[in-house]
Write a structure and sequence with these properties.
The structure holds two protein chains of two kinds. Chain A has eight helices and no strands. By secondary structure, chain A is mostly helical. The mean pLDDT of chain A is 82. By secondary structure, chain B is mainly α. Chain B starts with a helix and ends with a helix. The chains are: A mainly alpha, B mainly alpha. At the A-B interface, helix 1, helix 3, helix 4 and helix 8 of A face helix 3, helix 4, helix 7 and helix 10 of B.
Chain lengths: 173, 203
């Protein structure tokens, strides 16, 4: 049964003209030599022909008039991109940007700078003395960072999924 | 006025879709009739094969064109107009079926078989007289689930490629290929089961 399905699938691809060149030639050989394949092929070809020849159904004669009557009541809506206000999007962006900057400023404000006097590096700062625990110990900051990371990962996943989709589409056709 | 409409319609018949769309967007509402005339058969057939009843299909198909008119500015010309139109037809039909609480997802559901049985008795006698193969195919498609009927109709009647169907259904082209294959297999089974005598006649 499974074998039968495989044969049918291959033959449909052949009929639709989407099988690869190698498949095509191997199927053509099989069609010449194998009676089972030949019979199946003719059977599917009949179904294909029937499906192609089936006629379109027509709606009632008033159809166009009905549509034209109902659209007379409406106006064409503006395109979606026209009524999405760019300023609102910028506003949201600026809001988040200020929030992030605010958190950074707040974080630096919490650092005990004076305790780092003794160590020296090119910046004149002893990095080992900066109290990072204060910066990250705040529960709100932790939650905020966590959400950011999750959002970041979700975005990355989407980008990668998109790439995969494009790659697949290219590969299959 | 009437003469004007006739002239404008006859003027439009030769124009391709994007030209007509430009005219409609430019304020010539009547030009939309050209698109309705051009695609009503396709949209109606697609919707009918999904919702299964002529009255419902008429209503849904009209709704498809009204929606297309209202959101015409959102058609960016990245795909064929027909592909865009059938996307609207797809969502409208699915929404309608959901509202009607028809089982869209089950593929060999009972209602299909009930329909098949009721179609079968009267139809067999009819067929013997008419011997219409086309009618047989149409009846067999009517017995398929909306999903199967849709993919077959899009591929064979609405002249959409596998990629375009993928766009319409919001699925990957490979998934569509498998769906089409399964739909055709089930259609063949239906034809063999219910119209055995006629199928033999054809082969």
């Amino acid at each position: 049964m499974k074998e039968q399905q495989d044969i049918e699938q291959k033959l449909w691809e052949y009929i639709d003209g989407i099988s690869t060149t190698e498949e095509k030639s191997s199927i053509e050989k099989l069609l010449e030599s194998n009676l089972d394949w030949k019979n199946k092929y003719n059977e599917l070809l009949q179904v294909n022909q029937l499906l192609k020849s089936s006629e379109l159904e027509q709606p009632s004669l008033r159809f166009t008039k009905n549509v034209m009557d109902s659209i007379a009541k409406y106006h064409i809506a503006p395109a979606t991109k026209e009524y999405i206000n760019n300023r609102i999007i910028w506003g949201i962006g600026i809001f988040f940007l200020t929030m992030i900057i605010g958190f950074i400023v707040y974080g630096f404000g919490q650092v005990n700078w004076s305790s780092g006097k003794s160590g020296t590096n090119s910046l004149g700062l002893d990095t080992s003395k900066i109290d990072i625990s204060q910066f990250f110990s705040n529960a709100y900051v932790n939650v905020f960072m966590m959400i950011n990371i999750v959002i970041g990962l979700a975005l990355l996943d989407r980008v990668l999924a998109n790439k995969r989709k494009q790659f697949k589409a290219k590969k299959s056709y | 006025m009437y003469l004007n409409v006739v002239i404008s319609i006859s003027m439009h018949t030769g124009a391709n879709d994007s030209e007509v769309i430009k005219q409609v967007l430019g304020g010539d509402n009547q030009a939309f009739a050209t698109l309705v005339n051009r695609y009503q058969g396709y949209v109606f057939t697609l919707v009918l094969r999904m919702v299964k009843s002529r009255e419902d299909a008429e209503e849904v198909a009209q709704d498809v064109f009204v929606k297309a008119y209202r959101s015409l500015k959102d058609f960016r010309g990245e795909s064929k107009f027909s592909t865009w139109l059938y996307t609207i037809a797809n969502t409208s039909s699915i929404t309608f079926l959901r509202k009607k609480k028809l089982e869209v997802h089950s593929l060999d559901n009972e209602s299909t078989f009930e329909l098949a049985d009721s179609v079968d008795s009267g139809f067999r006698a009819n067929l013997v007289e008419q011997k219409s193969k086309q009618q047989m195919v149409n009846k067999a498609i009517a017995m398929l689930s909306p999903e199967d009927a849709e993919v077959i109709t899009l591929f064979y009647k609405n002249e959409q490629s596998l990629q375009e169907i993928a766009k319409i259904l919001g699925q990957e082209a490979n998934t569509v290929k498998v769906r089409l294959h399964r739909a055709r297999t089930r259609l063949k089974e239906k034809m063999e089961t219910y119209f055995m005598a006629e199928v033999k006649d054809i082969y």
